[in-house]
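Sync notes, pocket subgroup
Present: LS, DG
LS reminded everyone that the earlier model was apo-only. Rerun requested with fe (ii) ion included. Inputs:
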Amino acid sequence: MQSDVSDTTHEREGDSGRHHRRRPTITTRRPGLDFSDVPKYWFGGNALGTHGANALNLLFPDGERFFVRSVRRYLDSVDDAQLRADVQRFVEQEAQHGVEHEHYFAALEAHGFVIRPMLKAYRFVAFRVIERVAPPVLRLSATAALEHLTATFAKLALSNTVLDHAHPTMRSLLSWHAAEEIEHRAVAFDVLQKVDPRWSTRAAGIAVAVGTLFPFWVLFQGSLMWQDRANLSLARLREERKVVKDKTEDRRVAQQAAVLDYLRRDFHPLDEDTTHLAEAYFAAHPVAAR
Ligand SMILES: [Fe+2]
Ligand SMILES: [Fe+2]
């Protein structure tokens, strides 16, 4: 199965033809992964790295449901047929990401982790607090910002060696997800541009994004490590930290740069052409279309 990423050039409205950007074609695929043989410490035996990645995994399905609800609400405001079609494919991709990640949750539970209370608390904050308190345009803006951060992580996952030591099934899950995040990285942002292109709205969105993503990530990693504390001596954690330190530092630097880049007045997610990373991944690792 080919990558299905086209070479079409997309000119953004209102840019006087200055920016010519390649708009990726968005394709929904179904990897249908089997997680039954994924070991407890699938990140090269490294517990610290595994718990950190698992914590992010736990955020995906409900986080992505929140994204879908935030973008879909504005579908009627989008008159551009191409963008409407892209929104539909973005929704399908995020739904499939949720399905695969939730299959992995069963493996996590089989290793003895209690994850349902964490997911319940996260759902409460996303759907009972943020959805009720934050205005729809702020939810859309936070979604656009989180999609930018996700695309930043995706670029790292596909361009450096961070996943080299991961169990092959987890590597497939995270690489497939990363490549599709790159494909749809501009969709929520383009909808936001149609609905409310003000810089202040964009800046408020990334403030909400940063203020919700990282605290949950740290809390969930802490909870998983607490549950596994019988196997985590200080000496082990110290050793494991040495192994993941460089990658964690790469991510921290990339995150900071991504936030600053997002605050450029003329920022657009397609400014940086990372589409070739998705193309190369799917060319080498075909995944059946849904
Ligand atoms: Fe996703
Ligand atoms: Fe996404």
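DG: The chain has a mean pLDDT of 91.
LS: The first strand starts at residue 9 and ends at 11.
Action: DG to write up.
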